[in-house]
Amino acid sequence: MVMPAYNVAGYLPAALDSVLGQDLSEVGTELELVVVDDGSTDESGEIADFYASRDPRVRVVHTDNHGLGAARNEGARHATGDLLAFCDSDDVVPLGTYATLVATLGVTGSDFVTGSIARLESDPAGRPVLTEPPWMHRLHNPPRARIEAREHPEILGDVFAWNKLFRRPFWDEQELVWPEGVRYEDQPTTTRAYLAGRFDVIPDVVYHWRIRRDGSSITQQRSSVQDLADRMTTKLMALDAVTAYDDQTTSRIFLDRVLAGDLHRYFTEIPGCSDDWWALLREGIGEIWGLHSLVNSGLPPAHRLTAWLVEQGRREDAAAVMTYVAGLSGPFPRTSGGGPARLDLTEVDRLTGGRLGDVPSAAIALRDHE
Questions:
Q1: What secondary structure letter does DSSP report for 352?
Q2: Confidence of residue 228 (pLDDT cuts 50, 70, 90)
Q3: Over 70: is that where the pLDDT of 214 sits?
Q4: What positions does the domain Glycosyltransferase 2-like occupy (predicted)?
Q5: CA-to-CA distance for 33 and 55, rounded, in angstroms?
Q6: Of 193, 185, 181, 243, which is closest to residue 219 (Cα–Cα)?
Q7: Which end of the chain lies in a sparser environment, N or C, as judged by fewer CB atoms within 10 Å?
Q8: Strands 112-122 and 199-210, how do they pair?
Q9: Cβ neighbours around 286 below 10 Å, total
Q10: This model's pTM is above 0.90
């Protein structure tokens, strides 16, 4: 088990306790925890050293600050077991997780196994609240054993490093490493793993992902140019791997449902974005999707409309749509008008001065399930 740590003194004890509390005796496995103090300037390194001083299962590696990908790679170099897992130092691993994952691989003989996750948040009173994202529940149900990516392409949307257990020989044979120097390093590596091996998908929630409401997480800064650049870079890295896999169905689903899946979070940043950020968004979407318009994607309807406007370079109109959506108290108005169901642009078009009259039907069409 590898746990990178950088300035997480307030969260690290809970993460360490959750890992060290795992009982692996019934599955005949011993726990080894390598904590990589990635140049922390708070007490994270001292906390890790304290745990190591009283628990021989813990080893601490202190490095200069090189980022999450580098810290994971450093930890993997120090790990000695036949199985390899990763845990972030501000999250929590529920009891029984590793026993379940180890037992699953013991039965199936797969190269790795992935389980579902729950978001760990706090209610107004500060009490913990766990919520399994519906899309993760869907990806992990029903369970599957020893499958290949082409048998369940949508699972490539489960990009997380920390809800998986890998066989170390598979990890080494495929020369898997985490990209360094960029955020969102999970996606290229997990994509390569899915494409290279046979894996199990289980419905169990095996990880509690802490959502920091103070916005301090590096993945909660989407309005910055660097964040968007890293996101587009890692999307392209993953797309290269899928293209090389050379399966038409997998490529189509990856483009439409996986790579497009998080764009709506960036579209909300369009109102008030900088010129550089807007240019990068357009460039990235053009490079990844090209002539395969995002109106074909699995984005929600209003965001498919926004995507089309981005593709056309219509910044003010895209910002108007996103501003309108942010002010809605319910779903986007819709109409049929004697024809197929579609978004009703009557109100939002007033914000654009009537410029949405040329929007093609494909950009506002509603699907049967919407």
A1: T
A2: very high
A3: no
A4: 2-168
A5: 10
A6: 185
A7: C
A8: parallel
A9: 13
A10: yes
